[in-house]
């Protein structure tokens, strides 16, 4: 198993990829993400992990050019969750929803391949049933966590 690739961030905002021994751009980091490379970005002076900040910067650039994924309303709702008692619940819900979506995409691609050799109606029915079950589980977990959080806040 390979080690995590280290990218150093210098005070002049330049990024240095220690594996290939050269300076890289945010676009190069984005490409590492797309290729599934495990990496971390570290401040060269403090050794602080800056990976999240760099990923957010990449998302910001992607949102600025082309068609954005996040609407103004969606971003407003996300901002409102920060500091709220529901922040961890919302974070867990978003994480689980995105993980489920990614898994569904993988399953869909596999099922599409399988559909060529099997009955496509049965394949789509099975996939739909699995997706509904997963979605219900995510919703149940969200509402259960929200209910528990609400009870803690009201002292029940």
From TrEMBL:
Official protein name in the record: Polyhydroxyalkanoate synthesis repressor PhaR
Organism, scientific name: Methylohalomonas lacus
NCBIfam families registered for this protein in UniProt: PHA_reg_PhaR
Residues annotated as domain PHA accumulation regulator DNA-binding N-terminal: 6-65
Chain ranges of the PHB accumulation regulatory domain: 70-109
One of the GO biological process terms: regulation of DNA-templated transcription
Top-rank taxon: Bacteria
């Amino acid at each position: 198993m390979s080690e995590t690739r280290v990218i150093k961030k210098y005070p002049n905002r330049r990024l240095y990829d220690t594996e290939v021994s050269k300076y890289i751009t945010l676009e190069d980091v984005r490409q590492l993400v797309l290729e599934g490379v495990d990496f971390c970005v570290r401040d060269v002076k403090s050794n602080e992990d800056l990976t999240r900040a760099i990923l957010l910067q990449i998302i910001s650039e992607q949102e600025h050019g082309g068609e954005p994924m996040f609407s103004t309303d969606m971003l407003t709702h996300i901002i409102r969750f920060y500091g709220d008692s529901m922040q961890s619940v919302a974070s867990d819900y978003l994480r689980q929803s995105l993980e489920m979506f990614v898994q569904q995409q993988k399953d869909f691609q596999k099922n599409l391949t399988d559909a060529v050799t099997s009955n496509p109606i049965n394949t789509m029915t099975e996939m739909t049933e699995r997706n509904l079950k997963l979605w219900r589980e995510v919703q149940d977990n969200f509402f259960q966590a929200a209910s528990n959080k609400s009870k803690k806040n009201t002292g029940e």
